[in-house]
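Q: Start with the shorter request: fold the first protein.
A: Done. Sequence, then structure:
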Amino acid sequence: MRNRRRTVDRMNGRRGAMVGRRITGHQDPSRWVLLAVLAACSVTEPSQSAPTLVRVHELGTEEGVFAYARISPDGSFLVYASEARFSTTQPPRSQLINVIDLRDGELLFSEPGIDGYWSTDGRRMIFLSFAEPVNRVSIWHRETGEVVRDVAPDSLGDYYSWGRRDGSDLILTIRGRYYPLAGDRGVLPAASVPPCEGMGTGQRPLLSKDGKRITTFVRGTVVVRNLDDCGDILDTGLPGAKADFSWDGRYIAFHAPKPEGTGYEILVVDCIERTVRTAVSLPGSSLFPSWTQDGRLLFHHYGDDSSGFLLASGVLNVPARPLPAPQTAAADRSWSDVFPETPAPAEEYALVLVWGPWGAHTAFALHELEAARASFDDGVRVLMATDPASREADVSRQLANAGDIVERIPLVPERLLASEAHNQNPTVLLFRDRRLIDRRLGAQSAGDLLEWVATLERQGA
């Protein structure tokens, strides 16, 4: 049965969203259409026009979105992980997977968890469930409400994507592990994305709808490659984030820093023509786009006046331009390449957390960074910097809730690529003797940070 009329708590101690809350998808759409006229891609031909934007789901003032959100193939259902914004006290595993029926604004399913992703027919949704003390990879059936647990081992990774290849459903995880499904069960052992010369496997891959290609990060830029071999590689040269494939596999969409550093915009790359278009550029930040089968893009918009989800139609009407020369971050970077405005720390090691208040991972990351700082010895300096696109009012609000917190240093827009923090909010950089020796995408626990440095010390890195 559908879970329609049960009230689940929402934010700040309430757990979830209110079932039955109706969200109109037509809240002054003309205002959004006007905002979507792109300064970088002005329309010069009558046949080309800015995308039409419709707001389809509003978020609460205190509600954030943990990582990506995904629209169902037909554009009727939204799944996202809801989490409190501006808090530093919520415990780990506090996110809620919410499924919204965009046709009437009602909540169909809510359960503690993250990383929901739709099957290619839109009838199932895979996610990592936090409903029990042990994480469980689960599949929710939209038509019956049934939840199947233990689809595959949690150790294979989360951050799922779902394709269908040669008549079989295929699941790919953040760790580059993938496995077919037999019904709702993973067929093991899982395979691994193979490394390619000069680039390795890449980081945090997403799968194409036909299960043959992946998008991934390589030294800060978005790269498209085959899932199981190295025969067809496209380095877009663009410093983007999670890149979602269109249903025909020709296009990928992702958010990337605006040239002026005032937020994030959505780019669409044509993998055949090797072109890029700025599909959506609004005040604030547009994040984590997801394709419908008919070519619309859903994305999370975070701005001065609101936070919520919008659907963009006609994104391919925006003029395209050739892909730029690669902007790959230099392999060998020093402190002055990333933070020249701040004197280099005297300590042997320096950890810098780069974060933005629009990222719902931030609360946990700040809490754990402070805990790690209290445990490190005098040879480790712990610092933080904020994404240059962050609004200072939001940063101040986040830090006001944090209590005793680590020192903040500036990160200017032109240095964001050198930090590679545009791939993931937050990102942690590790320096030794003023040289950047490693980085980690995503929020890290205090234990992870302590072990990271300890391992390098043992290895003499």
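Q: Next, the second protein, separately.
A: Sequence, then structure:
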Amino acid sequence: MQKAIRCARTAAIVSMVALVGILYLTLVLPSVAQTLPTVTEGDYVITNYTFKTGEALPQVKLHYRTIGKPERNSNGQVTNAVLVLHGTGGNGAKFVAPPFAGVLFNPGQLLDANRYYIIVPDNVGHGKSTKPSDGLHARFPQYDYDDMVDLQHRLLVDGLKVNHLRLIMGTSMGCMHSFVWGETFPDFMDALMPMACNTIPIAGRNRIIRKIAIDAIIDDPGYNGGEYKVQPAGLNTAIGVYLILMSSPLQLQKDYPTGEQAAAYLDQFRKTMRESTDANDVVYAFRSSRNYNPSPALSKIKVPVMAINSADDFVNPPELGSMEKEIKKIPKGQFVLLPMSDELRGHGTHSLPLVWQDYLRQLLARSAK
């Protein structure tokens, strides 16, 4: 399998969507079908929404993508819906692209779109949903993870008329949202698969790195209180910080073995990211994690949980040992630490189902009714 994956890598192309850029290598086995299921896109508008801070917006638009169709049992409950949640600064587009959808959603695959109804939202502050860069800039409400999960819930129940989920999958920030979902709406889903996160507050190095990136932007005179005409120079620092956060030292060393190659890659990465990244959106996206702490209420999660981290994840380093302890608070919780191997891609391993799909298969079997 390792040989097949290496052959499928396209010249070590790294993608980091929007800001934090969810970093992952394009990995597709040659046997994966190139034809993907049909994707439907839409927008759901929530009026007069009040955030936890008390700030309000007359309208919040949530963009979403769906694949497949919902099925209901005799009681009218949706039985086949799967919610897939993206990470900080990202959006749902990558989940309907070949490296993800081509491994999970095609006929005969684990989440075959002929059997499942896949729902992929862009969170508030991200993608094509309402965000600071739309016009309010630094006057945008200071949303947090509770707001984001509440908006996801409203999209499902009021917008898409989905009253139950077969599964919630989340990567990075979406991983953390999965735990918030499990505590806030414990009867709404059958299973949770959080990938690449922890259940403790974002503190220590994780918080420090985020603050460095935020401060680099807002302390830049070019930021101008969020009313800049061109992206402030501090955005370069933030992009560089996130490249370090999301990447794998082993793979970067292999892909860029000389100083000149590494410097050229960083320059190109910054240039590419600046074309699609807004500084205010970056600041808000990372501030949204400020009060995340599901640890005290993990016992409220009723459903089977398959939490997965990887041994080379800079954001959630295994030496913390927190997930091994925290997962014991969840009655049906299971934690897997993917061991170091050539298949891993640091934090971005969460977006490579070729690496972890066997654990998804186990979770689906364990949570079947």
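Q: Describe the second briefly.
A: The longest helix spans residues 259-274. The chain has one domain: 2-366.
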